[in-house]
Amino acid sequence: MSRFIFHVGQYFIFLSKVFVKPERWNIYIRQTIREIDKIGVRSIGIVTLISVFIGAVLTIQAVYNVKSPILPNYLIAYAVRDSLLLEFSSTIIGLILAGKVGSNIASEIGSMRITEQIDALEMMGVNSASFVTLPKIIAALLFNPILMVLSTMVGIIGGWVAGFTTGIIASDEFIYGIQYNFHPYYVTYATIKTLVFAFLITSISSYFGYYARGGSVEVGNASTQATVYGSVFVLFFNLVLTQLLLA
Amino acid sequence: MIEVQHLSKYFGDKQVLFDISVTFQKGITNLVIGQSGSGKTVLLKCLVGLLVPDEGRILYEGVDFTSLNDREKREIRKTIGMLFQGSALFDSMTVEENVKFPLDLFTQLSEAEKKERVAFCLQRVNLYNVHKLYPSELSGGMQKRVGIARAIALNPQYLFCDEPNSGLDPKTAIVIDELIQEITEEYGITTIINTHDMNSVMRLGKNIVFLADGHVAWQGNNQQILDAENEKLRDFVFANTLLQRRNEPL
Q1: Lower CB density within 10 Å: C or N end of chain B?
Q2: C-beta of residue B222 within 8 angstroms of C-beta of residue B216
Q3: Which stretches in chain A have pLDDT values below 70?
Q4: Closest CA–CA distance from residue B106 to any residue of chain A (Å)
Q5: Which is it for the CA torsion A9, A10, A11, A14, positive or negative?
Q6: Scanning every residue of chain B, which has its alpha carbon at the shortest distance from the alpha carbon of A113?
Q7: What are phi and psi of B24, to 5 degrees?
Q8: CB neighbourhood size of B208 (10 A)
Q9: Within 10 Å of residue B123's Cβ, how many Cβ atoms?
Q10: pLDDT tens, A16-38?
Q11: What does pTM read for this prediction?
Q12: Which of B74, B92, B105 sits opposite A27 (nearest CB)?
């Protein structure tokens, strides 16, 4: 328990170093563009792939569980849309990114630490915590909502394709269902969750990478811790935000 | 010139540097030598401000570096170049971007002027057509040379080198040593080199400080080192096979 409290305290001290005025904005902007590519653009493939299959499986499962002579078929598409929007495209994609992006960030910063690149930054008078972390946080905050929207769209397309190719739901019924009883607030809710998860994933993994000491084993441990803690906090804040925003 | 006065450093209860007082002269290569764990790297990190000494002062041309605030330290750091043991080049940047990085940070030069300066620095360390390569595409010796190019990009008054020859073959080590010596003499800078390579010591050692267990155990130059009486220094120097032969009675 004392170790957990130590990490929480050190994490907030770390954040206080990250959120300070940059030495040179142009260097940070250049780094942020790089990070958008690394953290965001390079995640499009995995997010698309997973979302297509989630959408398709959700449709088949919804048909299996819900289909009844007294319920209209378009409710299946309605359920798929809301499931994707409320949970899958933000939380499940958040968990996947906690693994992919989180471990990548922790191992990158950890390697910078053990190869003295962070010392080199400090030596030049650069706030190393801010330089290595802030562009990643900004990049994720800017790009993860795009990934969330993409995931929802592609998931719905996956469900639609699965529906009409297997013949379990007609194309026009599905298209009607995804437009039925739409609450724009769900998009706001999903966006807020995505932004909070983006911040948690990037800041927690940067923290574990930044304080890595030793060699490759320690960098590996930092990467594992980043993934585990990132995922746990995504799940915890999912609960908190759902209670705050939907209850 | 850098003066170190009564410097001590602790890690928890463990003291690693004991009342170090030395002077590093301008325009020559100053060497800090000693066995692994003798406190060389800790001393170097204190000198450049990566570690804060617990006692003592570090004077850069008479200015007490240890008493400066962050902004004032930043001004001194603009005049410092450092070559790290593993080069510490930024993996995500090309060679050109690595050398340009201090220029981006500290100067108001135009892009064209920066590129010109980068080309000059790389040419100075005999590197050509590597601008667009990433550090992982270079050999160890080339990485060291890029490290030197980055260190001299801002025309430093002080150059710190931590184990510049570690991991290099003897021939490349000579190239790096000669390069450091040339740059030191050409620009009249204060160079401090941490090393335990006796070849470098014999080649570059105009002012040598020998550290043993965190103490300054001996100070002199490469002409005096082979005849020094200090037992710990003799153990260190004559651990080298070639020098052992020189020490054996005929």
Answers
A1: C
A2: no
A3: none
A4: 9
A5: positive
A6: B88
A7: -110, 120
A8: 23
A9: 11
A10: 999 988 878 888 999 999 999 99
A11: 0.86
A12: B105
